[in-house]
Task: structure prediction
Amino acid sequence: MARLMSEAGGPRGFAAFLADRANLGAFVRGNDPTVTLTTWLERLRRLNGVPFNYLVPNERMLPNESIRFFNVDFNWLFALIEGACSIGQSSAMDDAIHTLTVPALRAGAGLTATTREEAPDTASGFLLRSQVVAGWPKLEIVAYDAAGAELTDVLRRERVTESILLFAVNGRIARVIIREPAIGLHFGIDIAGGKPLRYVTVPPQAPAGTRPGDQIEGVSVTPAYRDARHRTLRVARLAADLATTLHARQADNAQDGTPLPFTSAEFALQLVEGTQEVIFRNASQKDE
Result:
């Protein structure tokens, strides 16, 4: 303040100095926002620090075991940053300096557009409220746009409470896959008792694009139990049934149709239980 008064030529010239935007602009030019300030504003653009009840004003909008998708309103985001940049603005001098410095503050926040037409692709995301969030803290999330391209610019992924996950990316989400962590791969059978089979080799009659390891549609084997009460499997019987079914489907055969040996490798492939996943699609967008 003392430097500004001196630059203005004392109290008498202060009003005239404020009115001369060229001189005032030269005075503030080069006074870039600090790293601390720009970091705080950039985090605010990602909705960090925004009270959760501003995002979800009523608990009934996000009930237990639900997911809600959203698009980030650029006008709301711009107003948020503008409000933060105007803190402490209480005089004509503050107003004059704010007019000149706010572009640098907006740029520091990564928000250079001033209208919806200038805004970049809309950010979007979802809020998931579920026991899955607490039970599987390392859920894998993959989002795609309407063209099928993966949206990799993740703006924010955070557990805002024990059971609520906030996920936001740059771009419009058309499809999102939420799956268990890959470390969940294990050997087993379905809880209903069946064991779907996978292609070891791909026969000519298989659907186009089928690869070894893909599941055979509608084909499974029901395991036999040595002790059904304790779910103790007859492993040798299960291996034989798997081999028989695979060979009958030509899913473990040589090119001339000769059955290939069913070894421990083929047995392991069939017993692999993949991670569970859920796919959500935006019906209003075409997802190729």
Notes: The chain has three domains: 2-54+70-118, 123-179, 184-275.
